[in-house]
Write a structure and sequence with these properties.
two-stranded parallel sheet, mainly alpha, 2 strands
């Protein structure tokens, strides 16, 4: 394996393992910024050593062990932080050299959930929570986050730094709250888990169309949250959404890792156990609430797909109605874009295109690659191939995901061929 290949492999491993490492270190040092620094130290050591010694059999355990040892060394050296040192010192036996491998086998999910509740504290703004989530829990770089926000990288970097300082300055506890405090923070936590899942389902950047392990982690955290807050309908709604969406993960790419769009997926390969679990969670959500919230409505939409034997047999009229309901409880131009797709499937591409053309003037979608992608698809169905090609090429120029870029350029080439016939 060449040096560049090794570095790409390390980067992929880091995106998967870094949230777990940072969460465990935060539990040790009670400081998110310091935990991230220590985790980065472990990454630097891996970049130095792995090209020489090879990728370890269990790279996640290697990173965790190395990061913990750095944390222990720091805590032992730092005399000016007596209070934190004393707090951790009484548990030092859990982190001695002899016990380090045993500690790696412990359940770390609780640490991730505590970290999420910590980063969702109301002392942080929503933008700060989102940026910090993408950085710590999804493993995105500052540059990738800046592109997602359509904001300068320096602005995102400052936002993340300020967020970590704010958490530290306010001594935000590393714990899952109870009672009213849990309820008050629940909506923000749901947003974060939803964000994690979406990043895994459709990766913002990189060489892979999906990041299944991130989806699995988000789903597992959602299930844990449903046990903690069993009477909250939207918790079950989010779990239902993730269960049903997860059922398609194996069919979203082919053996080469190339994307397979929803209409082309082999529905016989969708995971029926996950679908049944999702439908049961959706029913629990319905039984607890008088009206469906945004996550439950999205779950109901995915349920329509899951219960349809084929794309033609999908109840697109119901899906369009559900998107209409979703737009009332969660107004968003992206929801409108999805409604346009449903309208086009139910009543024809010309009707969907009319909605999309209205969205073309929305400034918040200026750099959103799915807008020209959807418009290209509708134009293609209307046999306006020249216009469709331009839209697919524009979408390809906006996406940060290499697999998606290739897909869009292939669709543009397909339009060009049809034009020449």
């Amino acid at each position: 394996m060449s040096l560049s290949q090794t570095h790409r492999t390390i980067d992929a491993i880091w995106r998967i393992e870094s949230p777990k490492v940072i969460a465990r270190l935060t539990g040790m040092v009670r400081d998110v910024a310091l935990a991230e620094d220590l985790a980065q130290d472990a990454l630097v050591i891996a970049l130095e050593r792995w090209p020489e010694i090879g990728i370890p059999e269990n790279p996640g355990a290697w990173l965790m062990t190395t990061a913990k040892r750095r944390a222990i060394d720091l805590l032992r050296r730092t005399k000016v932080r007596d209070q934190k040192y004393a707090e951790v010192a009484q548990h030092t036996t859990l982190y001695t050299e002899e016990d380090i491998d045993h500690a790696l086998d412990e359940e770390i999910g609780d640490d991730l959930l505590r970290l999420i509740f910590m980063t969702c504290h109301p002392v942080l703004s929503q933008d700060a929570r989102v940026a910090l989530t993408l950085r710590l829990l999804c493993g995105l770089t500052t540059e990738e986050i800046a592109r997602s926000f359509l904001t300068a990288e320096s602005t995102i970097a400052q936002r993340i730094v300020r967020a970590k300082r704010t958490l530290n300055a306010n001594n935000v506890p590393f714990e899952v709250p109870v009672g009213d405090e849990l309820t008050d923070r629940l909506q923000a936590v749901l947003e974060v888990i939803y964000l994690m899942f979406n990043e895994g389902y459709s990766a913002t950047a990189g060489d892979n169309w999906t990041r299944p392990l991130l989806c699995q982690e988000a789903l597992r955290l959602g299930r844990v949250l449903a046990e903690i807050a069993p009477h909250e309908p939207e918790v079950h709604g989010l779990v239902a959404l993730m269960e049903i969406q997860s059922s398609r993960l194996k069919t979203r790419v082919n053996s080469k890792g190339e994307p397979i769009l929803l209409m082309d997926q082999n529905r016989a390969l969708w995971d029926q156990l996950l679908i049944r679990r999702g439908l049961a969670a959706l029913e629990r959500s319905r039984s607890l609430g008088h009206s469906l919230g945004p996550y439950s409505l999205q779950a109901a939409i995915t349920a329509c797909h899951a219960q349809a034997p084929s794309p033609k047999e999908t109840d697109w009229v119901r899906i369009a109605a559900l998107y209409e309901a979703l737009s009332r409880v969660m107004p968003s131009p992206i929801v409108e874009l999805n409604r346009a797709v449903a309208i086009s499937m139910a009543f024809g591409p010309a009707f969907g295109l009319q909605i999309v053309d209205e969205l073309n003037t929305n400034p918040s979608l200026k750099g959103y690659h799915l807008l020209p992608s959807v418009r290209g698809d509708l134009l293609m169905k209307l046999e306006r191939y020249d216009e469709a090609r331009v839209e697919f090429e524009r979408a390809a120029s906006l996406t940060q995901n290499e697999r998606e870029r290739t897909l869009l350029l292939n669709r543009a080439a397909e339009c060009e061929k049809k034009t020449s016939i």
